Amino acid sequence: MGKTTGRVTLPGESNFLEESKDLLKRWGADAIRDSDGTKLDEGIKSLDAKIYTTYFVARGHNEFAQQHMEECQQIYLMSPYTLADKEEITIAFAAEYFDQQVTPDYDHDPKEWWEVIDRTTQEVVDVKDWDINTKDHTLTIHHAKKFHEYTVSFLAYILWDPTQMYNHITNDWGDKPHEIPFDVRKPFSRAYVVQYLKDWLADEENKRCDVVRFTTFFYHFTLIFNKLAKEKFVDWCGYGASVSTEAILAFEKAYGYRLRPEVFVDNGYYNSTFCVPTKEYLEYIDFQQRFVAETAKELVQLVHDAGKEAMMFLGDNWIGTEPYGKYFPEIGLDAVVGSVGGGATLRLISDIPGVKYHEGRFLPYFFPDTFYEGNDPTIEAIDNWLSARRAIMRKPIDRIGYGGYPSLAYKFPKFVDYIEKVCDEFREIYDRVHGQTPYCGLKVAILNSWGALRSWHAYMVAHGLYCKQIYSYNGMLESLSGASVDVVFLSFDEVLEHGIPEDIDVIINAGDAHTAFSGGDVWKNEKLISMMREWIYNGGGFVGIGEPAAVENGGRFFQLADALGVDKELGFTLHTDKYFHTPLASHFITEDVVEELDFGEGMRNIYALNEDTEIISYSNGEVHLGAHTYGKGRGVYIAGLPYSTQNTRVLLRSLYYAAHKEEEFKKWYADNLYCEVHAYPDNNMYAILNNTNQEQKTNVYDGEGNHVAVTLAPGEIRWMVINDGK
């Protein structure tokens, strides 16, 4: 692997010119970007590189925002549950929230725009029976039903952009002004953002900018802080902060009905991505996406008219520009850039349609919480690169880069050396596999309520961060991101309307019961159940993880229990003995297992229904891994699947077994599970990857079943010719 250049973006920093020149040369970078909290001086801008300039559309313009505080962005918030111990109670509805971030909106009549709800009965309290004290932000309910609980759903203004607030607190920015977000649905704000961008593009200071990096457009993902300035709730896909009275009135005109505050508050769940979306909420998402796409398109066209490229950051104010939404390509962006936490988040970026190129920000960010004396940031960099590299082999992004303060990173020579290696390796991979179709042994569909809209980012609370309740599921996405299978995302609505696509080999349904990912009450739909059973029975494969197809109905909890061969004990059939509990001595699915099986949080009380259920892993009276033949098809059950190299192999074998394609498994295959093989038949090449930072030995099988022994250095990728012409 020789020294190459290009396809790398370096974060810039003022008064760091000579060091920046060194990093540009060593990393082969051809672009420099600023960051939130940094600016590029003239010396940096004079370097021979593309210049990315961060551009905030609806924040960072406080002079305008302070003159139009009535056009601040809005959100519906819910008070704490309050017990009525007497007939008249007072609720301090805003007491839980950070008053520097949000404040109640009294400009719009609360009697029209707010709701008080008896949560014990779900009845809306008549507006005649409550009054507000605007001075101390309290609401008094008259004639309350004793020992019922009540909440207030109130409209609030957002006074401080959540990302800037987070960065402000994390980096101790002291007296730096709080950036006020404003809403482009409102008249002054709409006119302002268009005119400001025109003026900005014409300003001589910005002539050197080659790429306008929109961060992002108009509405921030839902991130609200509590009274202690700690995160209260966060949903990376939440549309809560895109609400406004203007939006609700425009929606009513378009759809013929008024959206209640409860549509947004949703019992205090705030339409978490894990909630099965209501018809009203789905219609609101579609409505907002159309508006955002139309408005963003106007700004992108201004950038193009100025001879510059338009890039969108996949984060911050990205709501309404979900890149797998049907309106996203209409915006006309040149590029998308996002943070890469691993393989799944890389595929989230690289699979996006409708843009010319895709860029990933790799970890760690050059922030003081990682780059401090005594810490070795190289460890995180190695883990990040090796996990993302698997996904790059399947669908490469076009550029990589880093963010933060390069002056911090420069103090760690070992880290700088490693990133130099990463940059060279990335360019080599890209040159070999870009535009190539990698070998895929199966086509796999992931079935949930969201379908393609949330491709590669199901099971996320905050972007890519660990969460106890979801790591046993999103490990499945991480495993698939670099596996030799074709992955698509289907929604229940699509399947009900159009049926199951003919080219699907295996369907995966994974998640906790009642969530959007398992499906909830949709599994009471006899059309869906019958369709799925028929498809599996006639030869399809079904893999269920956690609580698949789960809703108590008709004496079953897993509605596809007959296909899976297992169900979950809810306590209703304790009087019935569970006879089948002897695991098999060996099974195809676990042939590569070298460590103790890891099902993460697992699932309790899963039992085998029949003697023909293949129990693969069993302990404490519970099935953790099992399989079952169902007509010509098969079902496989897995109690949980956190990401690991071994679980990646367990999942892949489960898919092949479910599809009745075991005989095809050892095509482009490494028998050491810490290694993987990626083949590119059209390019007559294949690559062998060592996915660890230790030496590995493996037998590598080609597409015809022949194998050869290989020893790989730590993290090595070795390129081989499929057919040397002999």
What class do helices, strands and sheet pairing give?
A: alpha/beta
The overall pLDDT, averaged over residues, is 95
Structural domain count: 4
- Principal-axis shape: globular
Number of helices: 18
CATH fold-level label of the largest domain: Immunoglobulin-like
Oligomer: single chain
Major sheet: arrangement of strands: 1-2-3-13-16-17-18-19
Task: Determine the fraction of residues in helical runs and give it as a percent range.
Answer: 25-40%
Radius of gyration: 27 Å
Q: Please tally the β strands and state the result.
A: 36
CATH architecture of the largest domain: Sandwich
Question: Which CATH first-tier class of the largest domain would you pick?
Answer: Mainly Beta
Uncertain regions: pLDDT < 50 for 5+ in a row? Answer: none
CA-to-CA gap between the ends?
26 Å
Strand residue content: 15-25%
Major sheet description:
8 strands, parallel, barrel
Architecture blueprint of SSEs:
Blueprint: E1 8-11, H1 17-27, E2 31-33, H2 42-45, E3 50-55, H3 62-67, E4 74-78, E5 82-83, E6 89-91, E7 102-104, H4 110-113, E8 115-118, E9 123-124, E10 130-133, E11 138-141, E12 149-158, H5 162-170, H6 187-202, E13 211-214, E14 222-225, E15 231-235, H7 245-255, H8 261-265, H9 279-305, E16 309-313, E17 335-339, H10 343-350, E18 357-361, H11 377-394, E19 399-401, H12 406-409, H13 413-433, E20 443-448, H14 471-481, E21 486-491, H15 492-498, E22 506-511, H16 526-537, E23 541-546, E24 550-553, E25 556-558, H17 561-564, E26 566-568, E27 606-608, E28 614-619, E29 622-630, E30 633-638, H18 645-658, E31 669-670, E32 675-680, E33 685-690, E34 696-701, E35 707-712, E36 717-721
Parallel strand pairs: 1-2, 1-19, 2-3, 3-13, 13-16, 16-17, 17-18, 18-19, 20-21, 20-22, 22-23, 23-30
Antiparallel strand pairs: 4-12, 5-12, 6-11, 7-12, 8-9, 8-12, 10-11, 14-15, 24-25, 26-27, 28-29, 29-30, 31-34, 32-33, 33-36, 34-35
Helix pairs in contact: 6-9, 10-11, 10-14, 11-13, 14-18
